[in-house]
Protein: Supervillin d
Amino acid sequence: MNMHSVIVSCKDQNRYSDDPRTSQYITPSHTKYFSLRNSSTNFPFEIKVLMFQQKSSVDLGPKMSLADRMKVLKDKEEQWKSKGKGAANDSVQFTVAGRMAKKGEPAVRQLSVAPVVLSSDSPSCYVTDTSFSKGKTSTVEVTAETEKEVMTLDDDETFGNFYKSVSPSILQDSGVVLTEEDLSQIQADSPKLTSAVTEHKRAVRPNRRNQGSRNPLRALAARNDIRQVYTEQRLNVASLETKRIQVERMAKHSKTNLADVALAGLASKENFRKVNLRSVKSTDVVTNNSTLPFNKLMLIRIKGRRHVQVRLVEPTAHSLNSGDCFLLITPKQCYMWSGEFANVIEKAKASEMVAFVQAKRDLGCKASQVTVLEEGINTDSRWAKEFWSLLGGQTQYRGAGEPEEDELYESGVLDSTGVYRLHGEKLVPHEEAWASIPSVSLLDSKEVLVFDFGSEVYVWHGKDVPLGDRKVAVKLGKQLYSGSFDYSSCRVNPLDILFCVISRQGEGRPSWTLFGRLSEHNETALFREKFLDWAERKKEEAAQADEIKVQEIRFRPGPVKTVLEGVNVQRGHGLVRADDGRQAELATVAVDAWHIKEHGEEELPQESLGQLHEGDAYIIRWKYSITTLVGKRQKPGELSAGAPGRERTACFFWQGSHSSVSEKGTSALMTVELGSHRGSQVLVSEGKESPCFLQLFQGGLIIHKGSRDDIGWRLFCVRGEAEVEASLVEVDCQHASLRSRASLVLLNAQKGLLFLWHGCKAHASARQVAKRAADKLTQRCPSELGLSSTSSVNVEEVEEGSEPAEFKKALGPHDKKAYDCMLQDPGKYNFTPRLFRLSASSGVFEGEERLSPARVAEGVMAMPFLQENLYSAQQPALFLLDNRMEVYLWQGWQPDDTQCTGSAKMRWNSERKCAMETVLQYCKEKNPRRHPPAYLILAGCEPLTFTNIFPYWEKDTSITKNKVLLVKEALSQLSKLQYSIEELTGKPLPEGVDPLRLEDYLSDPDFKILLEMSRVEFNTLPNWKQRNLKKSKGLF
Structure:
């Protein structure tokens, strides 16, 4: 490359001429120029100042000559130099170096780089830092081609091929010993390595296995598990025999098939007073995972200016220095320590990271607050003593380095960064990411990467990576972490950044270093800070999340899912996706049921299959098969079944709403026994049956209420969204149980009469489901209903408004106001109600939609929710119920066992206010032209229009009825800003007021009358005087 010289002018409007060796600006006036010369081998630039003078036509004035003017300028310059206590200029005066100069602290000698001579079988190259030399050249000589090293699993086949024997004499001859005197003789013109991969190769050696002795006698003698002496153990035969007799007696009377271990557990007596429960306040992470991406004690160093480097260092006081920021993180404490001369960028990054760790409980830290410490300030405080105690005691540490050290460290520490990609069963170096700042573009959902940052080694895998590849990557990553390391060719040793305590080469990393496994979207803050553009990725993910939320609001919810043995069986029949991803057909093989009693179980006959009582518990065993289909699904006839799939089993234990605790425990125990060999166990609560469970009975499921011996008229509500999922739920036989949007079945077994009643707003699909349920009942004639196989049942369909006299007589005295009759309502009611849970428990007030477990993607569900959805939630609760014509805000009750303090009331009132504002805004968005009315409903005081949205409702007669309020009126009462003196001094206080700031709700005249002073005078008083004055006036 030819020599080039560039003349840079301080003027803007210039002419220039191109020359093969020199480019000059030609200007018409007196100008100062800088000449930059660069050779092909010189990195530094030579700067020369050239002064060109030309005659100027400007008249400087007759009173002052050019010499006098130059003298005045020179005097001003001398005055400027003497200004500011000898500082050259403001830029130097207010930098870290300027502050250090003011304090009189000498800068620590900056880091130097040792030249390293590699062995003869590697490319000959030398390393130096050109930033410390000016005007000298840096030569790069490469005599051999670089070779990438591949990580493989250690086994007997590759061990000998990978490692070759080396003579000890060669190792002794090739060893290089560096002393303190040698480091001072390093020349700054040493060549620099340019190949990043060759410069940072890792020699990963497997752990050598010590071969055991081949002598079998010695091996036998070395065993400790062979006993030579027999010790007799005496047993209490009488107590063992007594226990055996008790177990046999229980098994004989209960006639159970439970295992012996289960019977022994039921027969045993435990004293729970002697049981010591584990404290839930413990913050230690209890897990068997040895690849957690954090340690119990971590000291994190934050250093840099442009891209701040966040690195794990040894948790001792020697690792600190006055020029950087440090984070000390334990499971219970979180400290931020700032050096006196740390720059603003380091402090900002440290504050941001420590706030994230504490708020998100990242890195295993569950500290309640962040403790901020600054060097030289409050050194005798309790928090400072705890900080130094965690670091092993306060000792001397390094001062601040030169101002240029941060930038040198940023570039030097990147030399030790290594990134590997999993290829088969090998780790292959990633050339693009090697010895550079990683980018989030490397992270692919289908890839496994291993990041080696020296003191931290991470195995990262995407969400679509198979389990086998994840295990292989963790195994290879552990070999890399526990194997040998070589940082002799790196400018900065990541294991020992400031001192020469830890060698640049060795076997096995220190115990304070970190090896962890990370998955996609579960990265720690310490890992994320290593990347250049992670903040941009978070913005993109947030934007994508917003788009997804909008789409979820616009589209209907997806189909239901029931996953058994890793396969989504959906609604329990038809075509499904097998575990290998291919299309398959699901078919039921057999269905068996057991009735759980207090001390055993009873298998139900097939004619009683599907007859469940709300006070009992049952076990339903489902045997099914999944057959893979062959052919393309172009036409139904072209799809043929392949080989029959294996038989699978799923055990559902159904628990009624009024079943006892012992029955629930016995059902769970028996379910485990039935599914001990294979299969899934699924808990099913009454009212929350999935479509997969409902289809087992093919429309014949009946849930009975009360005793089995009840005779006379019985009323059942029809539920289900498909004919095979139809079910009958027994309700009170009265007019209040009727619903205009549903169908019901009225049965008298003695008379053999069945009325199939349809409400005036029941849609066609609900009527078909009701007919299927009635047909199944008449076909099976279950004995639980007082029928037999010889019984004859006459079915009669009845429409609302045209009921016969016998139907009305069966339901008792006729009362038109017993239920919400819609005969006079012209609406079509072809919509599905929606339910939202409103809560601020997560810290942000939000609404979560509740979906029916038996929902359908298409069609209308008239009554998808139950009373239990509201009353089973943690109280007090808030629900928004959208019934198209009107919107309800249901407000729960305050439990008696909870202590409601002043702050709790304030939070509850604030949450209520947010809920009311949300409901009003929901009504505006729902119909901008004509807002639907919004009503506030209190628990226990629900009107008929509200309770009839549910298929059945149990009223609490002990609660007095309350007037239904509009949400708008309730919000205005809750947001009232002024109250009278009597309202604020009386008990209870008005809703929505802050009990600690009652004076704010007084008008100015009332304020002066009660407190005998103005607001301005009251605000000037100390807090304790304000508090005492309010107490004396009863305003507290």
